[in-house]
Amino acid sequence: MASGVFIVLEGIDGSGTTTQARLLAEWLESLGREVVLTAEPTKRPVGALIRQILQGAHGEADETTMAFLFAADRADHLAAVVLPALAAGRIVVSDRHYLSSIAYQSLGVEMEWVESLNARFRRPDLTVFLDIAPAVGLERKQKQGTAAERYEKVALLERVRANYLLAIAHARAAGERVETLDAVAPIEAVQGKLRELLAPALRCGPQE
User: Fold this and answer.
1) pTM of the predicted protein model
2) 17-47 pLDDT tens trace
3) Which of 47, 53, 68, 194 has the fewest CB atoms nearer than 10 Å to its CB?
């Protein structure tokens, strides 16, 4: 490939984005593709701060502050990781991107403002939304045995999912390719569907 392909997995907490992104990257590498597996929030300086806030290490931060922090982390992520990899012809698989900000930060501020804050960022060539009922997703998270984070409450995740669906409608109206998969299905079944969806994106190359 002369230029790379940008693939993003989105979904509420417990939808399996991290697992599916890892499996997808491993599969692509087995086909001989050069792959960069990444995630937002990142492990870079701003992303590390966000993760600490989500885990309650620095007290509360309102959604306006969180929206700015996520946007700063995203700008750094694109500049330092995503865009160089795409320019080198690699496939970038990211666990979350700008739709997450719209879905989550719109809990506390206007969706239009969050969308405008993220308007200039590189859009994925393919986004896959892993859809799952919030109660089921939260049950999965609890079984992992990790401490609950900022948004891990059923009522909040119901609102996040609704925000996702609206943000996805906006993205599709703007010409983005956003597909939806049932994330309740077994991991292997979801991965198989994900690989099927990926074929056109690999052929078409990046968006302008």
Assistant:
1) 0.90
2) 999 999 999 999 999 999 999 999 999 999 9
3) 68
